[in-house]
Amino acid sequence: MAGIPAVRDRDAVRVPVLGLTVLYDAQCSLCSFVRDWLRKQSQLVPLRFVPAGSDEARSAFPSLDHRATLEEITVVGDGGQVYQGPAAWVVCLWALREQRALAHRLSTPAGARLARGAMLAAAKWRAGHKTGGSLYYGGDGWTYDPRAGWTYTPPGCDSGTCSTR
Questions:
Q1: Other beta carbons within 10 Å of 25
Q2: Alpha-carbon torsion 99, 82, 84, 39, what sign?
Q3: Closest among 53, 55, 59, 61 to 20, alpha carbons compared
Q4: Between 159 and 108, whose confidence is greater?
Q5: Rounded to whole angstroms, what are the CA distances from 67 to 2, 51, 62, 122, 135?
Q6: Confidence at residue 29, expressed as pLDDT on a 0 to 100 scale
Q7: Phi/psi zone of residue 80: left (φ > 0), alpha (ψ -120 to 50 degrees), beta?
Q8: Phi then psi dihedrals of residue 153, to 5 deg
Q9: Buried b / exposed e across 150-163, counting CB within 10 Å, b at 16+?
Q10: Is the separation of the CB atoms in 82 and 4 below 8 Å?
């Protein structure tokens, strides 16, 4: 689960994560439900919840693409780590006492496919409950359009170094 810096990096390789900020779509009933569920869980790492795209989020994380945080769950570690999509779901579970073992299983290659599938299912549900256009588009080639469903377009191989996954 590699991250990109969002705030001053404390050398995240050697410094443990002491807190996580979950940016969630406050207009999405599923996102709010998951936020409420996470709040009720026993947390090993404190979770703070901030509406994605809000003034608070923009102030706290000025270098993030805040439009993208409304499209896909984003979690920011206190050391500057940024997790998006399936990795964000896994790190949220990792922060919970009762779910940490599951998070470790989901961080394996096989588990990562399951986490990605859960994230895609959530994106599909969200898309069915919002109006207009495509809700999910990832650099992985998958796109969800509520009118057409899921489509996959393999990423280009112009550089000659194509991914085999």
A1: 20
A2: positive
A3: 61
A4: 108
A5: 21, 12, 12, 18, 12
A6: 78
A7: left
A8: -125, 110
A9: eeeeeeeeeeeeee
A10: yes
